[in-house]
């Protein structure tokens, strides 16, 4: 009976959290036209244990902005990162959920004339980094055209969190 109760609570808690993240969206001027758009995510072909294709697609309220598909990803968190590269458009960050491991990439996308492209390679992060509130990217206040990238690395039998300034344009 105890196992049944714990299983039921776990299932309902997971369902409630999934509903909350599905309803979440962000707002920003991602195409630089001066009008705010909404971005939201939808997951396709992904079971409870991350079986299937497990693709998460970021859609936009302005249908002229092409969607972004990330795989593998079982939902995730969207972030408006502001205009990191000085092109007048706000960049999007995406932190994918997955069923195993504490290591997750953090993706940063910028809209170009040909569509969405990575602003820089994905940033390796570990849950320790998120628990310590060390966000993966921010504009470098000291150097124009640079961002501060904070990532997690496995070194000397430990997880190290390191930051460095990286040129983006």
From TrEMBL:
<feature type="signal peptide">
    <location>
        <begin position="1"/>
        <end position="18"/>
    </location>
</feature>
<dbReference type="InterPro" id="IPR028994">
    <property type="entry name" value="Integrin_alpha_N"/>
</dbReference>
<keyword id="KW-0732">Signal</keyword>
<protein>
    <recommendedName>
        <fullName>FG-GAP repeat-containing protein</fullName>
    </recommendedName>
</protein>
């Amino acid at each position: 009976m105890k196992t049944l109760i714990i299983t039921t609570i776990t299932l309902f808690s997971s369902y409630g959290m999934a509903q909350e993240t599905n309803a979440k969206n962000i707002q920003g001027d991602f195409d630089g036209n001066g009008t705010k758009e909404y971005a939201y995510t939808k997951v396709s072909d992904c079971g409870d244990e991350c079986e299937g294709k497990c693709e998460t697609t970021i859609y936009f309220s302005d249908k002229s902005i092409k969607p972004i598909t990330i795989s593998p990803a079982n939902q995730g968190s969207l972030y408006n990162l502001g205009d990191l590269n000085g092109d007048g458009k706000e960049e999007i960050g995406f932190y994918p959920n997955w069923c195993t491991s504490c290591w997750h990439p953090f993706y940063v996308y910028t809209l170009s004339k040909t569509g969405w492209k990575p602003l820089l390679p994905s940033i390796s992060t570990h849950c320790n980094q998120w628990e310590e509130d060390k966000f993966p990217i921010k504009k470098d206040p000291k150097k124009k055209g640079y961002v501060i990238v904070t990532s997690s690395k496995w070194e000397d039998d430990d997880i190290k969190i390191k930051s460095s300034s990286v040129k983006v344009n």
